[in-house]
Amino acid sequence: MTIETISCTPFDDQKPGTSGLRKSVRQFQTAHYLQSYVQAMFDTLNQIKADNNPQASLEMPADTDNAHSDRTLILGGDGRYFNREAIQIILGMAAANGIDQVLVGKDGILSTPAASHLIRKHQALAGIILSASHNPGGPEGDFGIKLNISNGGPAPEAVTNAIFSRSKAITAYQRVSGPLVPLHQIGSHTLGRLQILVIDPVSDYAALMAELFDFNKISALIRTPGFSLRFDAMHAVTGPYAKQILERELGAAPGSVMRAEPLTDFGGGHPDPNQAHAKDLMALLYAPEKVDFGAASDGDGDRNMILGHRFFVTPSDSLAIMAANAPLIPAYRRGISGVARSMPTSQAADKVAEKLGINHYETPTGWKFFGNLLDDDRITLCGEESFGSSSNHVREKDGLWAVLFWLNLLAERRASVADIVRSHWTEYGRHYYSRHDYEAIPLASAEAVMAQLRAQFAPLKEAGELVGKPLKTVDDFSYTDPVDGTVSPQQGIRIIFSDGSRIVFRLSGTGTQGATLRVYLEKYEADVERHDLDVQEALAELIQLADQVGRISQLTGLTRATVIT
Ligand code: VG1
Ligand code: CO
Predict the structure, then answer these.
(1) Residues lining ligand 1, Cβ inside 6 A
(2) Domains of the chain, earliest start first
């Protein structure tokens, strides 16, 4: 089979965001658009040496002969519209770009955590995950492409920056043409010198979960008369995983997994597991008829929402509770080395780490910043306020893992979700927390909010007060990776008050329309008598302050956030 070289004009807008390149499906369908980006990824991978140190290797000249000897690639996606077409295109390009073997999920399906596990298990060169995560799908929706490196984690900034630079110079790409690879059945195929294995997307992941958790105990809990659970797969990728693990292996009643079939448009919804987008699940958990445990995951299976009967667990609290209870779970029996959270995530996990005397880190938003800490065993658990948590078992956040962690915890503690959270608050205090998003606003207004904040606090404050409230510091968060020294500046404005309350402002890096301003609000309450307030009421003073200091309504014309979680 011959390698064809197709000429194209370089694109200048292929800059990866917080988690891969996300654009509308329409844009990805533009002639040569996907191909140009994939070629930029292959060219960049070809520069990464077998020493597994992308940072250093990117400075070296390209030397494909010395690259990873076994050039295996893991490939799959969340099943959204354009997933299968994109997989066929990428297979043809892999065959022309020196890849020896591709493992692709049946029907083009692989959740993000499952792909991360497969990369590690097969010591693959990399993984390509086709997903725009929680963004809506369908012909009018979004598409996305993530690159994960050989540790199983999202490509770090050195790599994504290199891909972007390369994409701006792509004037041709290589491919091998052949018949379409039948993705609907497990089997092996060849395309030129490339071997393609269509694999079961679920089994390896399910086996890993069975190693980490006490499946017997969880199963006994689930089978206890009167106990009921619901898992909302949101017509996205976790459906087949949850059916296999929760229903077939652990014995949850058939139908416990709702919206289990992956659909190319996610049934028209946002596959985003939060109170705003998982309305049916929320209604079930808040209905008079008792459902003990509820959970949901997102488009690509890396996020989770945890609910008890009439009870919502904030992702920040979830991380802290996992850290505090880790030794109850088989995989973490011997304790954890440390915990990391993204900067906007509440400080609840820090309190636990301080008490346990273990490491704790604050990183910029995005899973790529946890990779080095996990590889270096400085942390075992990590999480983000955006419904993401995970451990060192993979290098991605992992939705079903979090669900199983909570089920294992319920089985060990024999307490309700609400009781577990309340007893945690009693011991550590409660961090009232909410995120207010102003979605799809004009880029100019969003940038104006950030620019005036930066101007207002330049030079950044060390003390003083803000509208009468004593301040600890205000800064523009900058992170220095403790393992490789990479500096990531300007990650968001942090206003930290003397009482520990915080307001954080940053712009989203995953949207595809206009800009999204995120405002994160956090208030610490030690007094048990005050642990039952309405969250928005408890945060009212900070919400008002955020609008005043951020001049949000003035600059965006919005008097209220579009999504509140
Ligand atoms: C959002 C979240 C962030 C998360 C990222 C990718 O990014 O805030 O915490 O890591 O999505 O998650 P941003 O830049 O829009 O705030 V996923 O599940 O979309 O891959
Ligand atoms: Co996701």
Answers:
(1) 18-19, 133-134, 298, 302-303, 342, 365-367, 384, 386, 388, 508-510, 518
(2) 3-200 (3.40.120.10), 205-428 (3.40.120.10), 430-564 (3.30.310.50)
